[in-house]
Amino acid sequence: MTVNDAVAKHISLLLQEKGISQYRLEQESGIQHGSMQCIMNGRNKTVTLSTVMMLAKGFHMSLTEFLDDDIFRSEHIEVE
Question: What's residue 80's pLDDT?
Answer without folding.
Answer: 67
